[in-house]
Structure formats: C-alpha cells, structure tokens
Amino acid sequence: MTQQVPSTEPELSAVRNFRDVGGLPTVDGRRVRHGVLFRSGHLAHATEEDAAYLSSLGLHTVFDFRNSADQRLEGPDVELPGVRNVNLPLSDPADGAEFWRMVRDGDLDQLRDILADGKAAGRMIDSYRRIVTERTAEHSHVLHALAEDSVPALMHCAAGKDRAGISVAVTLLAVGVERDAITADYLESNAKHRRYKVRRNGDQASAYTPEVMELLSPLFDARAEYLAAAFDSIEDTWGGVDAYLERGLKLSDSVRERLRARLVD
C-alpha cells in the first residue's frame, strides 16, 4: 500500500522543485489522490537523506524525461531500491545544443542577439507546442503505464518545470483536473526554493549581471503563456482534449477510467 505522505513539503537538500500534486480539484468535484503522483527536478545529486525520503514514498516508477545530453551534464539519477526508472527523452540531444552552449558561455552581445526582443519567450512557446504535438508516443506510454501499474510515480526532467511540467499537465488533463488548477500547480515552479539554478561560465561579476539575468529569465521562468501554448496546440491540432487523448495518445475510455481510478479519490 502507498504510505501516507506528510502534509508539509519535505526539505530535500539536493532535489529541486519536488512536490506531490495530490489535492488538485477535478471538474466533477473530486480531487487528485495524495501520494500517487509526484514531480521534481532531476535526482542525480540527491543526498542519502533525499534518497531515503524518496524511498519512503513507496514509488513504483520514476519517469525521467531528460535526454542523453542532460544526463551527461548532470549525471544519472541516484538508484532508489525497488523503483523502476523509465527514461523517455522529450527533447533530442542535438536540439538546441548550440543555443544552450551560448546560454552558458555567451557574452552579453551574443545573449542579446539570441534572447532579446521576445526571442527567448518565443523559443519556449515553440518548445512547449512541439513537445505536445511531436511527443505523443512518449506521453501515451506514460499514461498507459500509470493506468496499468506504475503508481506511485515521480515525473522529472532537469528542472522539473518544462518537460515534466507538460507531462504532469497532460496526466492531469486525462483525469479531468480543472485547467486553472493545472496552471496554478505549474506556476509553483517559480518559488525561489524550487527554481533551477542558472549555470553560467565565467566570473561572477560578468556572468550574472542584472541584464544577463533579465535576458535569461524567460528560459528559467514558469510562465502561464507557455503552458497555454501547449493547451492551444492541443486545440489547434486535435480540436480538444478528448480527441487529443483518444486520437493523439490512443487512450480508450477503459484506460482513462483505470487512470482515474488510480489517481483520483
């Protein structure tokens, strides 16, 4: 049986953006069950205490949405005894590699060229749209696994904001969580103690100036407009959530019912 999750959020010292999404309301007046679906940033640097806490949750599966480039940069997840780790990259290793090198190493003029005048936010919006429209097989795999036996589950990417954020949002849509509640949970990633730490090479004085941080902020923010773009892409491509789940993700009514039975009180 799933162990009772503490009502207060744990202090994980080396796992960013961890939380239980239990308690979110559905459109039919129910709530997501506590202790069955968690989200976070990567587990590569988890301490022994962090790992002990995560192990206490009775996790069945950890879904890691990082690509091989992410894993080379941060390292593999720590092993949690008895927990299955499923790696489903939601972005290609070569996708944007030069862009992210520029983010880490570029000087101010270079950053202005690739990020200023709305280009950074535009890149994020395009990424969110593509993850929804192009990664249907991966999202289908996750939802079918959750419906069968893979709960309690933890979903993560690098920061736990974008790829994991979209996957959590898709899961919540599938069980009928209110759209505003999904967005509110997504925006929790902006809390100071949750945010991914920006990495820049070079000396502190030049690498993290106020202008540099302002240019970078759209990449590291959780913004409602990004998630809205993902939702809009569902409407634009499939005409609505039900059609997206049925045609895009190949979810039958019976699978959706099993999914609700596992995730919703």
UniProtKB/TrEMBL annotation:
InterPro entries: Prot-tyrosine_phosphatase-like (IPR029021), Tyr/Ser_Pase_IphP-type (IPR026893), Tyr_Pase_dom (IPR000387)
SUPFAM superfamilies per the UniProt record, alphabetical: (Phosphotyrosine protein) phosphatases II
Domain Tyrosine specific protein phosphatases intervals: 126-206
Gene3D superfamilies (UniProt xref): Protein tyrosine phosphatase superfamily (3.90.190.10)
A Pfam cross-reference name: Y_phosphatase3
GO MF: phosphoprotein phosphatase activity
Entry superkingdom: Bacteria
PROSITE patterns: TYR_PHOSPHATASE_2 (PS50056)
UniProt record similarity statement: Belongs to the protein-tyrosine phosphatase family.
Name of the molecule in the record: Tyrosine-protein phosphatase
Organism: Streptomyces griseoluteus
